[in-house]
Input
Amino acid sequence: MEQLSEKNRQLAERIREEIIGEADLSRDLSDQEIREHIRERLLIEGHDNAIPLHQRLAMEKRIFNSLRRLDVLQELLEDPDITEIMVNGPDNIFVEKAGRLYRSPLRFSSPEKLSDVIQQIAAEQNKIINESSPIVDTRLPDGSRINIILPPVALSQGIITIRRFPKEAITMERLLSFGSISQEIVDFLKLLVRARYNIFISGGTGSGKTTFLNALTEFIPPAERVITIEDSAELQLIGLDNLVRLEARDKNLEGNLEVTIRDLVRASLRMRPDRIIVGECRGAEALEMLQASNTGHDGSMSTGHANSARDMLSRLEVMVLMGSVELPVTAIRSQIASGIDVLVHLGRLADRSRKLLEVSEIIGMENGEIVTETIYKYRGGEKGGWEKTGSLRHTQKLSMAGLYQEGKGLFWSRKA
Output
């Protein structure tokens, strides 16, 4: 990423303003015409100011991105090594590479330019963001997830957080190559997915929940009808012909036409799904998800934020209560215990690597509490490994799928 000197940065900004002022507003200029205008100006300025070729090329790209793309964000978005971009106002931009944060030397030319980029991002997905509605979640055409917060909620300038995803979906094979999971656990989870166990993935922010869920779906038989439900579409399911993707919608300017995750889960039940996949449970939709799992939609999956698999159960209780449902806690726990079969917990170690930390089975209810048993546990820190600490108790679904036989155990065939 070529950095401009302060003199050339100011020159690039001046050329940008001049091109805007001279643009023929009676017609739309093509990208090629814009590039030619920029190139002509830079050739003149380069001749007068002895601008090196590499700086001139960097200036051309910077000016074009400012006019037709996302300004300085475009350079960051084109860097394949950057996984997260954090904009804390026009002068403070941070990026994450290989799990570590760095301050970027790039900056917006003014608060107004940052505001223009924010409105451009929101408009691309028909989102509204202003002082009355200062928070928006959206995505870029490449699938990158974006959160934007404006003043007065943000005490300084506009805040942009962009979570980027690889252009190629990360498969279980790649997770194995990263050392994020063991082959034995992959084979075990593959059997559970094929046998239609309901699986819930938990973990902290940036632990790789969406990536892992995406990888897990590669084990779904291709003939099944799968419905995905998300706030902002991120999942990249492949190999499924009968796939329906649903995305929530925010309120319009009049405060109407909102479609929530909860609405979509209810609607999906009437769409003849074999499996329902909710990208992330954050609130009252947890009740609908549990009811779907308890009414014949086996093989459903979802994710949620939690510090441990056990904590995820408590959070699910709270989510159900967020829907103002007057249910006793024991009834909610019973729904969770019967609706979710297996919990998979992910996390990041001190070296910033992502690992599967725990696989637990929900056994049932005992004395009003949900009983779980850990089957696999990661131990030993950065150079540790996975230990098998238990065995699957509820094998009925595996037996019905022909993947388990009493006395012989699990059928570990990769072709299962």
User: Anything to note?
Assistant: The first strand starts at residue 82 and ends at 88. The chain has a mean pLDDT of 86. The chain has three domains: 1-67, 69-164, 172-410.
